[in-house]
């Protein structure tokens, strides 16, 4: 249940980590993947982004999610900062950031910035102009060319992968809108998808990531993503589908 303006502040256990977020926000999903990969216990609190509760704005005036309240009472914002903080809580040998390094992590973020811009123009602003669609295709082709192994940085999963996946999970939806495909017919990528010929490495990567147990614990399937974005585009966002 996403808390809205007028809803009371929930009890926040000071001995637990608490993640304040939104079920369909890719920036929140990055953090959820990090928490679940490292098996860090936390309490989730969801807020409606179109009607943010006053208690949340008092806690974090920018109103952006995610926000992590640590079990030491520290309030941390910005998904990348939270991901790195959580990763630092584990043993150095288990660090996902160490597997890719800061440079590769930043590189993954740069690719996501390129990809996210046309995705949100298409999905949110309903802009399917040829230049925007071409930008989406070019971003996918560029990312497809990056993969040299199973994961973004090679044979091992890293923090860069947890950064990428939540945004890639919007790709099927954006392509459907761009190509005027009925949303009822949108399905998750597989090797039979017509886009597979253009981006085989990217789609193989997405399939691999989606099968990881910690991802399956919290990932929203494309069917749920479609329903949420349809509610967004109708002017009545409903994250509690």
TrEMBL record:
<dbReference type="GO" id="GO:0004364">
    <property type="term" value="F:glutathione transferase activity"/>
</dbReference>
<dbReference type="InterPro" id="IPR040079">
    <property type="entry name" value="Glutathione_S-Trfase"/>
</dbReference>
<feature type="domain" description="GST N-terminal">
    <location>
        <begin position="15"/>
        <end position="94"/>
    </location>
</feature>
<dbReference type="InterPro" id="IPR050983">
    <property type="entry name" value="GST_Omega/HSP26"/>
</dbReference>
<protein>
    <recommendedName>
        <fullName>GST N-terminal domain-containing protein</fullName>
    </recommendedName>
</protein>
<dbReference type="InterPro" id="IPR004045">
    <property type="entry name" value="Glutathione_S-Trfase_N"/>
</dbReference>
<dbReference type="InterPro" id="IPR036249">
    <property type="entry name" value="Thioredoxin-like_sf"/>
</dbReference>
<comment type="similarity">
    <text>Belongs to the GST superfamily. Omega family.</text>
</comment>
<dbReference type="Pfam" id="PF13417">
    <property type="entry name" value="GST_N_3"/>
</dbReference>
<dbReference type="InterPro" id="IPR036282">
    <property type="entry name" value="Glutathione-S-Trfase_C_sf"/>
</dbReference>
<dbReference type="GO" id="GO:0005737">
    <property type="term" value="C:cytoplasm"/>
</dbReference>
